[in-house]
């Protein structure tokens, strides 16, 4: 995904859905910030989300692989939060 062509990144990405966000083998890359707001965020083990800051909101749960600098994550209902980060990361605010 990223810059929509090849593997070039775009500056900022906002993903908003009333349903479940699921990915299979996706590379989603932003040079700036990324925001995801979904009913449920569930990615497979081969997908990766890369950005400076990652803000996530889910009504159910979050399972995601990341390469980011800072994470904010919140689930408002019942559900687990699993974040697999590849490097050092600042967890600014995580609410489950």
What this model shows, in words?
There is one protein chain. This protein has strands at 13-16, 20-23, 27-29, 33-38, 40-43, 48-58, 62-75, 81-85, 90-95. The protein has 96 residues and is mainly β. The chain has one domain (13-95). Strands 1, 2, 3, 4, 5, 6, 7, 8 and 9 form a nine-stranded parallel sheet that branches. The mean pLDDT is 91.
Q: Quote the beta fraction.
A: over 45%
Order of helices and strands: EEEEEEEEE
Annotation field: number of helices = 0
* Structural class estimated from helices and strands: mainly beta
**General form:** globular
Give the SSE map.
Blueprint: E1 13-16, E2 20-23, E3 27-29, E4 33-38, E5 40-43, E6 48-58, E7 62-75, E8 81-85, E9 90-95
Parallel strand pairs: 1-4, 2-5, 3-6, 4-6, 5-7, 6-7, 7-8, 7-9
Short descriptors:
59% strand, globular, single chain, 96 residues, mainly beta, nine-stranded parallel β-sheet
Question: Summarize this, please?
Answer:
The chain has 96 residues and is an all-beta fold. It contains no helices and 9 strands. It has one domain (13-95).
């Amino acid at each position: 995904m990223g810059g929509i062509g090849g593997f070039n990144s775009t500056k900022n990405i906002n993903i908003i859905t009333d349903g479940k966000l699921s990915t299979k083998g996706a590379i989603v890359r932003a040079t700036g910030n990324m925001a995801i707001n979904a009913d449920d965020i569930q990615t497979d083990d081969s997908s990766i989300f890369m950005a400076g800051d990652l803000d996530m909101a889910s009504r159910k749960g979050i399972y995601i692989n990341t390469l980011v600098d800072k994470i904010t994550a919140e689930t408002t209902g019942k559900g687990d939060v699993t974040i697999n980060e590849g490097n050092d990361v600042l967890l600014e605010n995580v609410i489950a």
